[in-house]
Write a structure and sequence with these properties.
With 199 residues, the chain is of the alpha+beta class. Helix content is 43%, strand content 28%. The chain has a four-stranded mixed sheet. Strands 7-6-5-8 form a four-stranded antiparallel sheet. Strand 3 and strand 4 form a beta hairpin. The chain starts with a helix and ends with a helix.
């Protein structure tokens, strides 16, 4: 009995010790992570300021690079361009605010080209890198036209293809969804849904 009691006590002590070690290593890892984040933030603040203590600004000597990322092909192209005049004299925060407002009110040509995102990659007095992400909207909308399931392009709402699937072979629920316009994100999903409609 005494031996059993000793074993149970040793087991409990070992569990408490192991639990303490796990918690201690967790707290240590958390502290190290916090210190690294703080160091990174301080380093970023230091690089954003010149030796005089004022924030860096874009000037005529700053090299301007645009990364064009195609979300469809996942191709990334870097181009050195002439600095836009509206960027002159901007600080990092001013440029970020400008890019945000640019995205909220995109010019028609950028909408047509499929611009979905613009980000400031790096900012210094020597080099400015901006990434523009383009992606075509390859989604589709399915509708009933003259009793037949028809595919439309989501980008411009043009008729894409007639499917040959008659309204007579559909459930009431499918018919209601198609009358409202059934949105599909990818070609793979499109063929899966059409297969369900035709079975």
């Amino acid at each position: 009995m005494r031996r059993r009691y000793t074993m149970v006590c040793l087991l409990l002590c070992a569990m408490v010790l192991l639990g303490g070690m796990c918690y201690g290593s967790y707290r240590y890892a958390q502290q190290v992570t916090e210190e690294r984040l703080q160091y990174r933030e301080e380093k970023t603040d230091q690089t954003e300021q010149t030796s005089g203590g004022t924030q860096q600004k874009i000037n005529s000597d700053t090299k301007y690079i645009v990364e064009i990322y195609n979300g469809d092909s996942e191709e990334n192209v870097r181009e050195v361009r002439t600095m836009p005049s509206e960027y002159a004299g901007m600080t990092r925060k001013e440029l970020e605010a400008y890019l945000d407002s640019f995205m909220s009110d995109l010019p028609e040509e950028e909408v047509d080209a499929g611009l979905i995102d613009i980000k400031l990659v790096s900012f210094s007095k020597d080099e400015l890198v901006i990434r523009k992400t383009y992606q075509e909207d390859k989604g589709y909308i399915l509708r009933l036209v003259d009793g037949e399931v028809t595919i439309f392009s989501r980008a411009n709402e043009d008729e894409f293809e007639k499917t040959g699937i008659s309204q007579d072979s559909l459930t009431e629920e499918d018919i209601r969804a198609l009358q409202e316009g059934y949105s599909v994100d990818s070609e793979k999903d499109l063929y899966s849904i059409l297969e369900n409609f035709s079975s």
